[in-house]
Model the fold of this input.
Amino acid sequence: MQESFFDFLPKPTVILAEGAVLLPGFALGLGADILSFLNSIQAASPFRHMITPGGHRMSVAMTNCGKFGWVSDKTGYRYDPVDPLSNRSWPEMPASFLKIATEAAVAAGYSGFQPDACLINRYLPGSKLSLHQDRNEADFTQPIVSVSLGLPASFLFGGLKRKDAVKKYTLEHGDVVVWGGPSRLCYHGVNTLKTGEHPAFGKQRINLTFRKVV
Ligand code: SIN
Ligand code: FE2
Done:
């Protein structure tokens, strides 16, 4: 990664669409202990490649923490209080995760966000996430808060219809995107991750998405 003088200046908030913002560096305060939280989460509920209802193995590996976890298999998508791999509850959501998610929601104009699920996506170089809507949650008045860690990604953000134009945004380590209100059901995705090396996270990108499921 190339450094320049401008890296030391705070980057301004970017409006992606009405109700959707990118807060550059908002999660940088999470600090180094996030890696140890991620390690203990994956020790209890390992990353796995889920199968879509159409029978495809996802290139992104996933796990969850919080009361509910997002799972996909041949029967469809759902939120499940039990990890089908461990047959136990998902690991608890660390207080520092919850705090950063609620603070980012407030900064984006959504007060009172109480996420009960955190999907953890792991992208290795070559992984991608096709355009989709997050629509398995009960209450669309609650936003989605997405925290990016590790290698940078090219994030796609479109409109309410799949065929609407999409814009590309680079998400760096520590960036947070929040979408809700009129943008809550906007299509989004992640382009194929490029190879690289992040000082703390190595050759991967981790994304945390916080949701209010029930
Ligand atoms: C998601 O849509 O669940 C993840 C988005 C991302 O990885 O930035
Ligand atoms: Fe999503």
